[in-house]
Design brief:
The complex is a heterodimer.
Chain A: H1 14-35, H2 43-58, E1 62-65, E2 68-70, H3 75-82, H4 84-101, H5 110-131, H6 133-138, H7 140-169, H8 176-208, H9 231-234
Antiparallel strand pairs in A: 1-2
Chain B: H1 3-26, H2 38-43, E1 47-50, E2 59-62, H3 91-113
Antiparallel strand pairs in B: 1-2
Classes of the chains: A mainly alpha, B mainly alpha.
Chain lengths: ~240, ~130
């Protein structure tokens, strides 16, 4: 057995893997059709770079407890920077490259991994970020808080979906209560790391190019982040 | 702010973003924790890992979810487990290859999907 970052083949039975594979295909097909509206000559290369950035940061496992580590999932990060439809494609591409080239995450488990991180993680992160958008637009601290909370929640909810998949198609060798408690507990800690990385990244992009932060787009110029030069380029928004 | 200046700034920003990703994957990756991540910690619950992953003698004793895990069909890939050809100390090179592949695949897909002749800020509904 090889330790990897994502679900391996065999953790859930074949019908469960197939069902989540179908959900993943439907979700990603919808994402492809909706992503177009968010992609233009400037946001398309941005989305490509965000994808490569998530791949890079996912390699960095950080310690959370003695003998346990965590790594970025990236759902809230991509949702805030490039929007949820493009963002789910970013994460799906990362997962596909990892599974195909790096043997990280099984091929039959790709559907479960896509549902957890590319669909649920991204859209939960986006939902939290949109709920906090007023705060995010008000000040830099508000934007960082929004990114942190959205990332923390996306991590914990993605972990809960694994528990659901295990409950449906796992072999029950470890009780569902134990799996739930451990997954949520560990991912609360990982979510703090995810929140810090997401806030730092979103904050860095917003400080130089607020117009490239999807969540901040469409804001009236007077509400743009103060002290930055990006308000003029974002001012043409609808 | 004039449009050409904005274009140069955008290119500079993109180059900087790519360099950050390359430094993280190519350099910072050597400092990554090798402890099992959150998911692995849970699937290994109830088992003890004996032997060595390096020599391929790694075994799980006890009872745990991870015993159901099968090696990926791509386990024989020359980049499997973020090593180039299985070599020690190659994680950074594997990471740089991964960043290059993802930026080409994702950038290419998004470039094909984009709405032509438009720039940021004119994108559709605020959703």
């Amino acid at each position: 057995m090889v330790l990897a970052m994502h679900m391996s083949d065999g953790l859930v039975n074949a019908p469960t893997a197939a069902a989540f594979g179908l959900i993943a295909v439907i979700g990603l097909a919808l994402a492809v059709s909706r992503a177009r509206a968010d992609l233009d000559d400037r946001t398309a290369p941005m989305a490509g770079l965000v994808t490569a950035f998530v791949f890079a940061v996912q390699m960095i496992n950080f310690p959370i407890l003695p003998g346990a580590s965590g790594h970025l999932l990236g759902g809230a990060l991509v949702a805030i920077l490039v929007g949820p439809w493009v963002g789910s494609l970013c994460i799906a591409i990362v997962l596909a490259v990892q599974a195909l080239l790096f043997a990280d995450g099984g091929l039959t488990a790709l559907g479960t991994n896509v549902v957890n991180m590319a669909l649920v993680g991204v859209f939960v992160g986006y939902g939290v970020a949109v709920a906090m958008r007023g705060l995010a637009r008000r000040s830099r601290a508000g934007l960082l808080a929004t990114a942190f909370v959205a990332a923390l929640v996306n991590t914990v909810v993605a972990a809960m979906v694994f528990v659901l998949q295990y409950a449906i198609g796992g072999d029950g060798v470890t009780s569902i209560v134990t799996v739930f408690g451990l997954m949520v507990g560990l991912h609360l800690l990982i979510g703090i790391g995810e929140g810090v990385i997401t806030a730092a990244t979103v904050g860095a992009v917003a400080s130089v190019r607020p117009d490239l932060v999807h969540l901040l787009r469409g804001a009236p110029p007077s509400l743009e982040l103060r002290g930055t030069g990006g308000a003029a380029t974002a001012g043409s928004a609808t | 702010m004039t449009a050409p200046a904005s274009g140069r700034r955008t290119t500079g920003f993109f180059v900087g973003f790519l360099l950050v990703a390359l430094v993280i994957a190519g350099g910072l990756s050597y400092l990554a924790s090798s402890a099992p991540d959150g998911l692995d910690s849970v699937t290994l619950q109830g088992c003890e890992v004996t032997g060595s992953e390096v020599t391929g003698t790694e075994e799980l004793t006890g009872t745990c979810i991870a015993q159901n895990a099968r090696d990926s069909a791509t386990a024989g890939s020359p980049l499997a487990d973020y090593a180039v050809g299985g070599g020690d100390g190659t994680v950074g090179f594997a990471g740089i290859i991964g960043v290059a592949v993802t930026v080409v695949v994702a950038g290419g897909l998004f470039w094909l999907l984009r709405r032509r002749g438009t720039t940021a800020g004119t994108a559709g509904p605020d959703s």
